[in-house]
Amino acid sequence: MSRPEQALVAAARAVRQRAYAPYSGFKVGAALRRRDGRIFAGCNVENASFGAGICAERAALLQAVAAGTRVGELQALAIYTAAGTPTPPCGMCLQFLVEFARELPIHLAGPRRVETVHLTALLPRPFRRFPGAARRRALRSRGG
Ligand code: ZN
Prior knowledge:
By secondary structure, the chain is of the alpha+beta class. Helices cover 32% and strands 19% of the residues. α3 links the parallel β3 and β4.
């Protein structure tokens, strides 16, 4: 694994310590690297109202977008958990990520090993747009 990839995994591992996971006990850290080399990290934050929690992957992407990151600028993602097996992002996070990166190497890291997978392999047919939305917009603009 190259030095930039090692640094990305290290950032995910470090931010995992800040995870708030009193309900599942499953702490996750995620780090996204932008093309300019800047890294954005996020951890999972759970809530007594379970659905209000957020995954580490989306927390990291929120940081990146708030710092000005736009579509196509993300280069790689690392996810760190203490699990013995690699832990891929959930479906909601995959959909959230694919909005900003059509393709993205994802390093699934833990204390024993790192496995690299790709966003396109985990989410081969993402939802991209509302079918017919462009046509409806065109009709509306013509007064239809
Ligand atoms: Zn998720």
